Amino acid sequence: MDAHLKETQKDSRQVYEGHFLKVQKDTIVLPDGKESTREYIKHPGAVTVLPLFDDGSVLMERQFRYPLDRVFIEVPAGKIDPGEDTLECAKRELKEETGYTATEWQYVCTIHNAIAYSDEHLVLYLARGLKEGERELDEGEFLDVYKAPLADLLEQVRNGQITDVKTVIGLFWLEKIVNGSWTPPQRPAGV
C-alpha cells in the first residue's frame, strides 16, 4: 500500500558512538530510484510516567536540560536499559527520580518524538496509588519534584511554560483519562 513512499537502505555506517546515543549515516534509494543520505540518532528508547494522585493532581519534575540551557517542567521519565521490560523501567524511574512507588500501573501509549532524525520511542504509563518514599537519583542527576493540579499544568501547556513533548502529550492523555473521554488501549506485545 505504501510502496510508492518507501526508502530503501543501500548502505549504513555509524559515524558517532557516545555513552548511549549513536549517529548513523545511511545511503538510501528514494522511491524514484535516485540516491540520497539520511543521518539519524539511534536511541535505546525511554519510558514516561504519568503519576496521578487520588485528588487529580500530578507529580511533576523541574530539571535543567543542557542542550536548551534552561530548566524544564516534565513528568518523570528515563532511558530503557538493554533487555529491560518497559513497565519495570517505568517503576524504576519513578522510584529513582521521585521516591514514589505506585500500586496501579496502566499502559497509555507509545510515541515517536523525533521521527525525522531519531528512532527514539517513549512508552507512556499511568501510575496511580502513589506512595511517597526516598529518592535514589543517579549520580550527576539533579531535579526538583512537586505536586500540581492537572488544570494548572494544562494552562502551563497552553501558555508555553510547558513545552517538553512527552509531558505535553502525557498531560493531554491525562486530561482525557480523568474526564472519562479516553480509555488507554491494552498494552501491545513487546512493549
From TrEMBL:
<dbReference type="Pfam" id="PF00293">
    <property type="entry name" value="NUDIX"/>
</dbReference>
<dbReference type="GO" id="GO:0047631">
    <property type="term" value="F:ADP-ribose diphosphatase activity"/>
</dbReference>
<comment type="similarity">
    <text>Belongs to the Nudix hydrolase family. NudK subfamily.</text>
</comment>
<protein>
    <recommendedName>
        <fullName>GDP-mannose pyrophosphatase</fullName>
    </recommendedName>
</protein>
<keyword id="KW-0378">Hydrolase</keyword>
<dbReference type="InterPro" id="IPR000086">
    <property type="entry name" value="NUDIX_hydrolase_dom"/>
</dbReference>
<dbReference type="InterPro" id="IPR015797">
    <property type="entry name" value="NUDIX_hydrolase-like_dom_sf"/>
</dbReference>
<dbReference type="InterPro" id="IPR020084">
    <property type="entry name" value="NUDIX_hydrolase_CS"/>
</dbReference>
<feature type="domain" description="Nudix hydrolase">
    <location>
        <begin position="43"/>
        <end position="170"/>
    </location>
</feature>
